[in-house]
TrEMBL record:
Ranges in coiled-coil conformation: none
Chain ranges passing through the membrane: none
Protein name: Alanine racemase
Domain Alanine racemase N-terminal: 18-169
Organism whose genome encodes this protein: Nocardioides seonyuensis
């Protein structure tokens, strides 16, 4: 009863090395479900990357996690420093990180008060100062950054590692916004010239490096690194059972009667794996998504599209997914699969829990 992520290891590793080569100074991001791989595995892989760099490449010496509770999982597998992306808070989760790792931690500080409080407690703490971007999630305005830089100078803090910018995912260019933010850094009198930044294209990075040669711009990358070569990744469920179904026969938790004849195909993978009612719509245009919603995602007899495919055709849920299995409806005329066959599944990797990750 498994939902399996099978990785073409050689192809995946080649892709990872390529991305690292194209993005000098990269800070890999491993958070949440580890983009489907698990945070621990990504930490081990980051260690491997740090040992397989071109001799001239800057080191991969910093790995980003999302939260303090993720620190323990990576710290034993990756030997460099660990940046926590969620900003430090006085009554926050910082205690969730093992104290033995404290010296390798880089905190994200997004409020002046927090800078004061953090460095009251630990004057040697290392941190990045986060700037507010058009995302408006966390971060300091230019005035606040200026005050923070004042605190750093006044307290002679030596832990300032750089500034951080979290940019929206957007089609247009980030160059204008990053340029303004870098100018703000200079204007505050900050001494650091290191900036950790998300969601810049290689072209944007190259332009910013050319226009700001005094800055070290380090891209934080998760998705494009771990999931950037989808062809190296295959997600499969297994056919667990098949039952012929005549029109009018009842099935499922809700005792629904079959609107037409066919087969019920029971496959592994359910809500516990993150299999949802709605098929992933990432590659759909707004218009076709609206059309799907208007139809309630239903076919003519009221079945909902599933992310499972048989013989290359996306199949319908006979009823909403169960905790660890799903029931699909296969219309008359389609090839009936055997128990034990693989079934292709389209998933959102960041929201899927795999039973197995096989790196071949
Ligand atoms: C998740 C995250 C990233 C990485 O985002 P991807 O889209 O997966 O590359 C970078 N920076 C911050 C602050 C994040 O939370």
């Amino acid at each position: 009863m498994t939902l399996t992520l099978t990785v073409d290891g050689e192809r995946w590793r080649r892709h990872l090395l390529e991305v690292v080569g194209r993005n000098p100074g990269i800070v890999p991001v491993a958070k949440g479900n580890g983009y489907g791989f698990g945070v621990g595995r990504l930490a081990r892989r980051t260690q491997w990357l740090s040992e397989h760099l071109e001799p001239s490449a800057p080191p991969v010496d910093l790995l980003a996690v999302g939260t303090y509770s993720e620190v323990a999982d990576v710290a034993t597998r990756f030997h460099g420093d660990v940046l926590v992306l969620t900003p430090w808070r006085p009554r926050g989760a910082a205690e969730d990180a093992p104290s033995t790792v404290a010296a390798r931690l880089v905190h994200t500080v997004s409020r002046l008060d927090d800078l004061v409080e953090l460095t009251d407690r630990d004057p040697g703490a290392r941190f990045v100062l986060e700037q507010l971007t058009s995302m408006r999630r966390h971060g300091m305005t230019r005035r606040e950054l200026e005050e923070a830089v004042g605190v750093v100078a006044q307290r002679r803090l030596r832990g300032l590692v750089g500034v951080a910018q979290h940019l929206p995912l957007r089609a247009g260019s980030h160059v204008g916004e990053v340029t303004r933010l870098l100018n703000d850094v200079v204007a505050t009198g900050a001494t650091t010239r290191t900036v950790l930044v998300s969601h810049l294209t290689p072209d944007e990075l190259a332009r910013l490096r050319a226009s700001h040669p005094d800055f070290t711009i380090r891209p934080r990358i998760g998705t494009d690194l771990w999931l950037g070569d989808r062809g190296a990744l295959r997600v499969t469920a297994t056919v667990l059972d098949v039952h012929a179904l005549e029109r009018g026969e009842t099935f499922g938790y809700r005792g629904r009667s079959a609107p037409k004849g066919g087969h019920l195909v029971v496959v592994s993978g359910g809500t516990a794996h993150g299999i949802g009612l709605e098929a992933p719509t990432g590659d759909q245009s707004l218009r076709s998504r609206a059309a799907t919603i208007a139809r309630g995602g239903l076919d003519a007899v009221g079945f909902v599209r599933s992310p499972f495919s048989l013989d290359g055709k996306q199949r319908l849920f006979a009823e909403p997914p169960h905790m660890q299995a799903s029931m699909l409806f296969l219309p008359q005329g389609a090839r009936v699969p055997q128990v034990g066959e693989d079934v292709e599944v389209r998933v959102r990797f960041t929201a899927t829990h795999f039973d197995r990750v096989d790196v071949k």
